[in-house]
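Entry type: protein chain
Record version: 2
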Amino acid sequence: MSMYDSDSSSSSYGGADYQNLKQITRDRLLREMIRSTKAGDSKSTWKVLIMDKLTVKIMSHSCKMADITDEGVSLVEDIYKRRQPLPTMDAIYFIQPSRENIIMFLADMAGKAPLYRKAFVFFSSPISRELVVDIKKDPRVLPRLGALREMNLEYFAIDSQGFITNNERALEELFGDEENSRKSVACLNAMAIRIATVFASLREFPSVRFRAAKSLDATTVTTLRDLIPTKLAAGVWDCLMKYKKTIPNFPQTETCELLIIDRSIDQIAPVIHEWTYDAMCHDLLNMEGNKYIQEVPGKAGGLPEKKEVLLEDHDPIWLELRHAHIADASERLHEKMTGFISKNKAAQIQHGSRSSGDMSTRDLQKMVQALPQYSEQMDKLSLHVELAGNINRIIRESGLRDLGQLEQDLVFGDATMKDVIKFLTMKEDTTRENKLRLLMILAAVYPEKFDGEKGLNLMKIARLTDEDMNVVNNLRMLGGQPDTKKRSTGAFGLKFDIHKKKRAARKERPGEEEKWQLSRFYPIIEELVEKLTRNQLSKEDYPCLNDTSASFHGSPFAGTVHQNPHSMRSRRTPTWAKPRGSDDGYSSDSVLRHTSSDLRKTGSQIFVFIIGGATRSELRVCHKLTRKLNREIILGSTSLDDPAQFISKLKMLTTHELTLDDIQI
């Protein structure tokens, strides 16, 4: 019985056996964990898989039930529910190494009549020595153990280039009322362990960089929240040092880069309208996660029926269009429909002499659905036509184009508070949430406009509530102290001339001309990653734990100094909303060329971890930069939040500020 995971899952990025994060995670769960129980003295053909609330989500993000069944699992159980004894079957436990889980496991397998014949136990993260002793000291349990191992896999692979640690309350626990420091410490510890398990899975050892505390001089007060990235970086580093000693074939020198930042670095990205197909689906449609309820034609001409569908990587149309501008996605869908009809004789007969160019996409969808050879491929296409149609309808009915234009103009310095007031008075039918999001963007660019009576007057003009005002104030607190007299910079640390009437939170980017007007906005992490690859990221603002010269609070972090040169080949500059004929990474042929078998990416991986929630625009940028820089960019965060979720989390914050004098570090 090994307490450590095997050395079978190296990512070998750029090599012949390259796999992305989601593929590696899936393979480890199915092959390294479940399939490994078939060897040795396991006589049971079918097995029971027992998980806790967290590990069942880990599994569901990477594997389908059919995948698990194919590996010989006939039953999946919750460790905390009462279960039927199956003494002739073996059980696979995939659980967190908590005391509660160990108690439940021992209750299953101790005594004269255990629930299962043999138990193969896999822990999602490192287990303490005390708990191992508890397991091994029971003489009846020990011979019933088929395996006792640390999988070191405690994250959700939400994308081929994205993961979350499922710390859904990180904003509240770390940036809210900090009187409960035990909560914040527990949150950071869990986060650090889960981030480290990503590197354990990939067999990568990163150089760890983090956003340093903004103010460390005698004239200003440093708060605990200023040190959150610092403390998380130290926690991740501690876990990695243990992995170097305990995991076979774990790299001893740096193989990639990790940058740890927090949500305060960019307060606009979570609330601005992102105009890509993926973001619009989750922002405007009533979806639960990736689930959408679709209306399909009823059987034998009856009433329409509803069915649940998932927007996921297995859908090639979704993969192709998810990062395209909604207008571009709609055009492509119409082309796909007309293309299908032009190649299908039955379709041509059905719509007679009418030209497909004269028909709406919705008309084409209804006609295709009526065809006898209505296929699974057309089922997918019909789904996306419905989605895009619903999105475009909402955009028209809610006047989102005008609002989106104002949002972008505010961010790029082409609009001022006067333009916002004019919009609020002229467009009174704008929804409460959209007005709130507009004012949150205004507060991020012009924080002083919300001081005292100014903020209250703005809220009255927008007809928003005191609760909404608290959300705006909490956003300002997230970006730093709201006392504008003490600072001369905006919410993003960009220096502005106070005599200028207009102010910009983003600069126009040369060479980044977009086909669509509402695609100008980009998240701050795009700049950070590009600076990191060019070695232009400030070492004072973003020190490295691996560098012995790096220090903060006067305490250097000693570590191995090993800076690998990174390949900078193929520095092409694609945009994510180019004309469809271009190699933008999202046309049909391009998707096939850029699958995981693409070996053109060179250089080491870059991981960016955002404390307090990431956005779909930030995940989209990681895919874009992977192609632009020929280096795989992987985004990690505590959660992936859509605007409504982010606003709900901001409501949970309080504006109490705890200083370093109040706590012990």
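Comment: Residues 181-202 form the longest helix (22 residues).
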